[in-house]
Amino acid sequence: MYRGADGKVDTIDFRETAPAKMEPDTFEEPGPHDTFTGHLTVGVPGILRGAEEALERYGTISMRRAMGPAQRLAEEGIEVLPSLSAAMTTNAERLKLYPPAARIYLKNSTTPYAPGDTLRNPRLARDFEIMREHGIKAFYQGRIANRIIEDMREAGDVPGDRGIMQRRDLVRYEAPRRRPVRGTYNGHRIIGMPPPTSGGIATIQMLNLLEGFDISGAGQSSADHLHYVAESEKLAFADRAEYVADPDFEDVPTEELISKDYADERRPEIEQDQAKAYEPGDFGGGGMADNVVNPNGHTTHISVIDRKGNSVALTCTIEQEFGSAVVAKGTGFLLNNEMTDFGDPGTANEPEPFKRPRSSMSPTIVVRRGEPVLITGGAGGVRIIMGVLNAIVGVVDFDLNIGQALDAERVEAAGGVTGPPFPLELEDGRVDEDVEVELGARGHTITPNNESEYLIRPRMNATGVDLDTGKNLGVSDPRTDDGARAQK
Length: 488
Description:
Serum Albumin, Chain A, Domain 1; alpha+beta
């Protein structure tokens, strides 16, 4: 999502698409896809096409120049941070299924790198060099494409695995521009990403619901604050499961879902003293609900604001940590497992050829008095949406700066959409015990977070203008490695 200093907003959708051979029942047979692994889970990658589109429209440098630093990092190596080392440990057995991936991400193809080690990837550097010389057409129809498709054809060493992506799937990929979704919340303008992601709709819908409650008066970290946020999420996620999917394939009632009138209609269902389940709204055309809420994600979010006031919120992902765990032979990059974001046959989000699966990515820009006071997004699967919502509530309702808003405790209730016992993920070590008792009395079942004060996900990043000082601020989430940086 791009917002110029002049207020112009544009969004580019480089979500992966399903191969031509994808069908609603493709995942019905058993295989490694049951554990989010293997060639069948791979969607047509979109980030290169999206980056090219963004540079052509709003960039100041060429793609060749933009790839240069990445190529140098691959050649010279990067320091393995604690989060990457932990991810290697968690996914070691998946990576060992596919030797090209194990050779890159495990020492001697067997052992995770330790924090502080240097990870080099000369094959990735070579991929960048090929694309810098020949353009991204090398990826979508040239030398790199050949290697991807050859690997798809040869898939089968792992029982139940198979590849269905073909050359024409890569050749036909496009990254369309889409109209952002827009809303308002207590004097702020909210700009979000439209379908096929559910993030923009769900965030605005929840904010519309919360606007009718006195969240500020209830006080930060109070039982009312956390309860109303949780109930708003469950209501919005009921609609998400029923209606939100690829708008090129399904009639998504976007404007209805994000309208103030709809929020006014549904808000009375939320009771102050009782956790509940909620049915989706009736807009016609719905089908079976699809409650795909995978909390795991290997997602990267970047929030940027420059000295001129232009801002960018960009989220890209390969789904799970290490994606499908597949690296095509002769290449140096992981292939995604985004096709696992599809739902069951018969749902709006069912798999279909060339369709984009619903996601939870939520690049968001919040504007006040014409300035982007919060540019944010995150990583963490379905939890991204609540990370964004909590940040907005912190900035708007509790007058927190963006660092305080990202540090504040998070609440997540997506698991309680369908009914009791209404599990509530809460950074409970950071909330008063009497608040937890009160939430339990209202019917919430708190999932304890005993390992640390923070949940692992979502991991957020944010920038924004401080209206009091006029300075641009940048912060990274204390839940992960340091990541905020400024350059004069």
